[in-house]
Amino acid sequence: RGDSEMVEIDSGEWQAAGPYYHDWGPHAHLLRNGEARWDLQIPAPDSYTITAWWPAAPDAIGWNRAVTYDILGADGQVLASRTVDQRVDGDMWHLIGEATLTPGASVRLSCTGNAPCLADALHIRSRARYNDGSPVTAVTLQALDGVILARDGG
Predict the structure, then answer these.
(1) Who contacts 80 (Cβ-Cβ below 8 Å, separation ≥6)?
(2) Which candidate, 84, 91, 74, places its Cα nearest to that of 110?
(3) Greatest CA span in the chain, whole angstroms?
C-alpha cells in the first residue's frame, strides 16, 4: 500500500570486482511511503522467529533510517516490533522478533518520512519444525525443506 515500485537490486555474480549485494529476487518493493505486508502462511500454531533481509546496495545510503517491522497475530494485534536502519548492515538477516503465531499471522513494514524503504525478504523459522532438542514422533517437512539423515530407533 502506498507509493511503491517493484525493483531488482543485485550487483550480479558475473562481476570481477565488488561491491557485491543481492536482493532475494525480482519481487522486492521500494516504498516511498506507506506499508508492505507479508502473509506468513503459518501452517500450525507454534513459536516462530522472523528475520528480515535488505541488500547492501550503494543506494542504501539514501534509504530510511527508521523502518518498522511489526509481527501481527491473526487478529491484527502487534505481537513484536522492531525499528531498523536500512542504510546499514545489508546483505544479512536481521532479527525482527519471536512470537507465538497461528494461521493468519502477518508481518507489516511501515515506511514514513522522505527516505524510501525496501521490502525484500523474510525468513520464518518454527521452533517445532526444527531441532529444539525435544523428542518427536513425527517430522513434517515442506517441499525442499531438508533431508532426514538418521532416525531414532524408538
Answers:
(1) 50, 70, 71, 96, 97, 98, 99
(2) 84
(3) 59
Q: How many whole angstroms separate alpha carbon 121 and alpha carbon 137?
A: 32
Query: Which cell is 90 given?
Result: 545489508
pTM for this predicted structure: 0.76
CA distance 3 to 114: 12
- Give buried/exposed letters for 1-15 (b at 16+ CB in 10 A, else e): eeebeebebbbeeee
* DSSP H helix total and E strand total for the chain: 0, 10
For residue 90, is pLDDT > 70? Answer: yes
Q: All 3 cell numbers of residue 59?
A: 543506494
Residue 70 clears pLDDT 90, i.e. is over it: yes
